[in-house]
Design a protein that fits this description.
Elements (H helix, E strand, L loop, with lengths): L6 H12 L5 E4 L2 H13 L5 E4 L5 H15 L4 E4 L14 H29 L2 E6 L8 H6 L3 H21 L4 E8 L8 H10 L4 H4 L8 H12 L10 E4 L4
Parallel strand pairs: 1-2, 3-4, 4-5, 5-6
Helix pairs in contact: 1-9, 3-4, 4-6
Length: about 240
Amino acid sequence: MTGAANGLGRAIATRLAAEGARLALFDIDRDGLAQVAEDLARAGTPAFALTVDVTGEAQVLDAFARLEAEFGALDSLVNNVGGSRNAKIWEMSLADWDFTVNLNLRSAFLCTRAALPAMMQRQAGSIVCMSSGSREGTPWTASHSGGAAYAAAKAGIHGFIRDVALEVAPFGIRINAVAPGPIETDRTREVFAHMNATLEHSPNRMVPMRRLGQPHEIADAVLFLASEEASYVTGVTLDVAGGR
């Protein structure tokens, strides 16, 4: 899985490990990745961890070659890496737009493409990508900082999995997405607290369940879509967003 060093990635890795999965973890954050791998090993689930920039084609191809050499068959891929450089659209630089789209969308393309040949040969596999409730725009992000690039990239994930699901279904491969609402992590806690204190259109007011989501709630959804319990589910973006 990608984006494994922090936040949702850490929660997903921990949840999959609890189910007995053998994990290969990718992230550009060397120190964070090492800490996650150490925590998993301490809990009895050693992981294969590689520092990788998953927006770089050569690095992705090398990482998947090393993964295949280490594990052999790859059963599931979780494309979790994401993030943004937000700005109001009239102030956004091309560099920040490209960074956001590449981080969220190009990474999913590169890693999915690298994982598919072995899955196609085995006639089996599952892929879970991370979309977002922000794919349709969110009032709090628009009011606070602007989020057009992030919304476009996450909407792109939805379109990506819809088409790829049709392409790979004949090979017994499924691909789906999870679309989190506002989730409280170490990185987002302070921002969401500020939004809830200052914005009329804040997450806690706009989300029907009147709270932020927790990382384990996203991890549970990823586990379901990656597992055989979702064996007849493909091309679906599953909203985990408190009713928003």
